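So, can you check this one?
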Amino acid sequence: MSTAPEPIPLPVTAVTCLEDRAHVERATVLDLEAGVQRLRLGPVSALAVDRTLHAELTAEDPATVLDVRIVRSWTPRGPRPTDQDSALRHRVHALEEDLLALSRKRDRLHARRDALGRLAADLLREIAEGAGSGEMEGPRWTDELNRVDEERDSYGEQLRAVEARLTSQTTELATTQLSLNLAEEEPAELTGHIELTVEAATAGPAELRLSHLIACALWRPAYRAVLDGDRLTLETDATVWQRTGEDWSDVRLTLSTARSALATDPPLLSEDRLTLQDRSSTERRTVDVELREEEIADLGPASVLGLPGVDDGGEVRVLHSPTPVTVPSDGRAHRVPLSAFTTTASSEYACAPELSPLVTQVVRFDNLSGHALLAGPVDLILGSQFSGRGTLDFTAPGAPVELAYGSRDDHRVTRHTDETRDTAAITQRTVLTRTVRLHLSRFSTPDEQGERMIVLRERIPVSEISAVQTRVREESCSPAPDTIDADGIARWNLALPPGGQRTVTLVYELTANAKVTGL
């Protein structure tokens, strides 16, 4: 073992933060001697994973790492602060000592006042017994009662002063303790050191690189979108939390979505049996249909409820911080800037009355960041004001992005539907007619001017079989939809002046032949 009184410092130089842990790299320069020697380096966090320790030596002459291990030691804190502790910690200790002394003094005063109360009761009983037996010692009884009452009043005043001081000291202790918790953390009682055994052919300097995994560290993406007219600036940040027991000071930070813990879990296999069954004569004569809700999906991963992990689209993504960063080990969220870009954005006021009666400002732009945008929260800034917080879905590089900047309070949309059913007597064809009426209003201030384009969307059922057909009765619509896409989404572009109102009527038919049931 090295005879150096202090261990060799081994600072953190680079960190790769994963979804629920971190890969830490350390580097230092060692002054080796010829032969085999054991060095003590550190201190390091006691949360380091032993089996992931890996050390490399780089030197002009051959040098080999024979063994590397982490040795943990437990040093319990003493009951009193040391000279190295801060003034806040000394103040907390002094207040705790004062509270203990005051509580003991309060107990003694309570005991003395209770004893004087019992003495007064005994004295009154003695006076009653003496007066009953004909004794007349009025002056003595008066002096004794006055002395007991004076002592009880004196101890009562002292008790009230002690309780008032206890209250003030307790309040000050709580405030000081809160300040201490915010300013610093408790020194770790469990610390670790690296014991490194190396063999060097000749004496000289050598560069040591050591890496390992560590728990209590994670990151999540976060964004900030600033919309100024038709220009949008999107800033990509990483929110990093770490409570590893040591600060990361001026480290190269890399963010990865790799899930190392899932690599050792084999997939679950189950049987999937397919069987054939002949249809009955009734099933051959009829076609059973039903209406179902189908979500229109784009390219990309399926949505995940909540935020159990980083949504990376099924592929490991790696992001780098452009500058060295410092992340203290306080368990709080720290935002690290990653990238930013400014582009031209198109804005529209959209409304889907079947889903919501609100008119929402929707902004669309392309992802020009050069990397994939992971799913995460986004702070929405409109001009110079905070508009709210939204969610950004996973977006590939160059793909379009859609952000909702909140609803408009000066718009209102109402929706009414009617449905009629007719059956032809000869062909037995069923015709289901639906009428949807949408009323759109704009409430404006007297000084507001200019029209506002509102994009109104309403869906129409889409049939997957030829036995059921869907047709829009454009002659009955007022006005007719501007476009109807393959998914059955009808769209109107309506220009509303200040204080204007519009009514949209959509009429469509569902026609089914006699074999169809369930419609």
